[in-house]
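Weekly sync, protein design subgroup
Attendees: M.S., D.O., the rotation student, P.L. (late)

Item 1: inverse folding check
M.S. brought a backbone from last month's batch and wanted to see whether the design step gives back something sensible before we order anything. D.O. pointed out we never logged the input encoding, so this time it goes straight into the notes. Structure tokens as presented (463 positions):
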């Protein structure tokens, strides 16, 4: 039996996830919902053959990655930093990496290998803890001079990368009301499933609370204990740390020290020591002010934590406010612009800064509904200089729209192109972006791209 045949047989029980499009392999075209597609993908992976997304004349090359055994199946992915080569209506479209902080990290802190589908991350924070060690919170202004060389990822850089990979920084009006915490969680876990850090699958250290349900309380508790077991073990005074991504409910004084209470985990808070708590207020002053004043702002926390005596305690953390649509914003101006874009039913991608310090400007967002050439949107705050050439060093975007936020009200946005042939593709994208191909085995109850609509946009729907 040759490799292709073996792959063919394997697909009888294998799932394929691919952006909704038409693909060409060896001169033949296949739609993702065609019967042969799953087998074609498995064969392409076995033979290291590339697919071409046919959203553009001549097609855009894509590769097939095999998912981790826990998930199983295959995923069709774009080649590193080629999202901008796709048509703006294609679900594989992404702005050039240079329009966000991703540009300086690709090839250094983030190494994507299309040959095996694995992305290796170089982390700039600890995933183990020596007894008695004190760690500072990760934020802008603390340690940015170390991180801005792009050699490693801080907690913020990792969170931004996961958010981008999970397509959560991208918005289309048809997604309104379809992003619940369950959907956010499943997208993040799927994205993490192909990431390796310190020779370990990142997902094995990642804990994201499952949507809480009173009926499922016991089962949720058991799964949480199992997930935390690697952090509970301690050897020679050194303990493994877990990564937490969760929505913060409150960070408040406890009977002793301080605690972070996160949503969907009503029976277990995370301990925070006093010095970390004090530094939080300074390091995340803008983010906390936005959260305090905006009813429809969720606060996302990424943290490393250890477990001692069954109690989790935070070692290092980073905060990221997001809107009702789970789109990251850094301050009131950013939220104002995102709210306007959403209200005007625009399609766009938030350009996340990753490791870039605040003084280095990149686009705030890239509009993808302006026709063939996407447009960058930038906010200039106070006496900041306008975005540097990093955002405009490619002819794949039209630079231009600037908002001097301290000097003027929000200007009119660039015009949207009239309805075009991309509408059908956008409708498909709205159905989940990465449409599952008809398969014989699903990824499991919590891994679907469409997820559960329970909770609507998620605001106020959690315990
Ligand atoms: Zn495409």
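Designed sequence read out in the meeting:
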């Amino acid at each position: 039996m040759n490799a292709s045949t073996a792959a063919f047989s394997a697909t009888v029980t294998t799932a394929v996830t691919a952006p909704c499009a038409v693909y060409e392999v060896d001169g033949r075209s296949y739609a993702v919902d065609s019967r042969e597609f799953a087998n074609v993908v498995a064969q392409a992976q076995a033979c290291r053959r590339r697919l071409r997304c046919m959203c553009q004349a001549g097609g855009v090359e894509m590769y097939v990655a095999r998912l981790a055994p826990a998930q199983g199946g295959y995923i069709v992915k774009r080649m590193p930093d080629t999202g901008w080569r796709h048509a703006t209506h294609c679900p594989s479209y992404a702005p050039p990496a240079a329009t966000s902080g991703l540009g300086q990290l690709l090839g250094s802190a983030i190494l994507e290998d299309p040959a095996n589908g694995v992305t290796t991350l170089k982390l700039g924070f600890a995933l183990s803890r020596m007894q008695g060690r004190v760690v500072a919170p990760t934020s802008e202004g603390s340690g940015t001079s170390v991180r801005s060389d792009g050699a490693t990822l801080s907690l913020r850089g990792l969170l931004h990368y996961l958010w981008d990979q999970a397509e959560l920084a991208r918005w289309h009006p048809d997604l309104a009301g379809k992003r619940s915490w369950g959907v956010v969680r499943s997208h993040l876990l799927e994205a993490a499933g192909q990431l390796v850090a310190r020779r370990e699958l990142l997902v094995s250290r990642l804990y994201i609370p499952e949507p809480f349900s009173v009926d499922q309380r016991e089962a949720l508790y058991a799964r949480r204990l199992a997930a935390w077991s690697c952090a509970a073990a301690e050897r020679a005074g050194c303990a493994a740390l877990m990564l937490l991504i969760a929505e913060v409910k409150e960070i408040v004084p406890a009977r002793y020290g301080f605690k972070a209470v996160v949503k969907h985990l009503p029976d277990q808070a995370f301990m925070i020591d006093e010095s970390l708590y004090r530094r939080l207020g300074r390091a995340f002053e803008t983010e906390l002010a936005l959260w305090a004043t905006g009813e429809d702002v969720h606060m996302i926390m990424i943290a490393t934590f250890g477990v001692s005596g069954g109690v989790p305690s935070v070692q290092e953390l980073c905060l990221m406010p997001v809107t009702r649509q789970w789109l990251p914003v850094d301050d009131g101006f950013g939220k104002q612009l995102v709210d306007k874009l959403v209200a005007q039913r625009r399609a766009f991608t938030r350009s996340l800064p990753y490791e870039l310090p605040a003084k280095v400007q990149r686009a705030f967002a890239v509009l993808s509904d302006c026709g063939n050439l996407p447009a960058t949107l930038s906010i200039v705050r106070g006496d900041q200089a306008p975005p540097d050439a990093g955002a405009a060093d490619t002819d794949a975007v039209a630079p231009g729209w600037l908002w001097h936020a301290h000097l003027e009200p929000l200007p009119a946005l660039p015009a949207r192109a009239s309805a075009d042939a991309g509408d059908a593709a956008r409708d498909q994208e709205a159905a989940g972006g990465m449409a599952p191909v008809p398969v014989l085995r699903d990824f499991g109850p919590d891994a679907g791209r469409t997820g559960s609509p329970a909770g609507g946009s998620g605001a106020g729907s959690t315990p």
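Discussion: Residues 217-232 form the longest helix (16 residues). The two ends are 54 Å apart (CA to CA).
Action: P.L. to compare against the previous round before Friday.
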